[in-house]
Amino acid sequence: MPPPFKFLVFGATGGTGRHFVSLALQAGHKVTALVRNPAKLPFQDANLTVHQGSITEEVDLDNLVHGVDFVVIMLGDVNLQKDAQINAAFVQKLVPAMRRHGVKRLLYQAGGLSKPYGGQLSPMLWVLRNTLARGYAGQHEDNEAVMAYLATAANDLEWMVHRAGIGSDGPTKGTLKRSPDKFSVATHRDCAAYNYRTVMDPSAIRTCSLSYYEKD
Length: 216
What we know:
With 216 residues, the protein is an alpha/beta fold. The protein has one domain (6-213): 3-Layer(aba) Sandwich (Rossmann fold). It is built from 6 helices and 10 strands. The protein has helices at residues 15-26, 61-65, 86-100, 123-130, 137-153, 188-198; strands at residues 6-10, 30-35, 48-52, 70-73, 105-111, 158-164, 166-168, 176-179, 186-187, 208-213. The strands form 2 sheets. The chain has an 8-stranded mixed β-sheet with strand order 3-2-1-4-5-6-10-8, with helices on both faces. It has a two-stranded parallel ribbon with strand order 7-9. The longest helix is centred in the last third of the chain and has 17 residues, at 137-153. 42% of the residues are buried.
């Protein structure tokens, strides 16, 4: 059992974020969450601190990151990301605040169809991106800008990227494993469990990995 940690979560009211917060609280950890609408976070727990706000507004990042062990970002807004790289702009403000307070570990959840910095998509993922997921081009480009920034300007931090394939908010389908090339469409619940395990896994530092369900 790991010691109690303090997580700072962005995207806590999203499909994956709600499950992540639940997992962390059930394990006895402390969670601070920045959310636009606190009413969408269905938890009441002494270990949960909620701040109302948005990454597209002015946020007191120094206050949020102070004393934090792990920062977890599970954000996406397909409409806003059509016109602006809001996640990349936010991460570029967040990282300096983390440095100022000695916070090292950051997990960023991107999409499985977002290309890692310096890498390529498999033919299958490329086809999916340019056909079924064509309407999410802005999100892919924003995720790629985040990965490029982390890889080129933040290697003093212990960052990691989960290029998740999220399908629905259904029951668990199994345990996701980390992989450079294997990809599964997963539930929000299973992606949250993967993120929870991975952010505490030193072997994941500075990776931009996919995740998949391992067959028995």
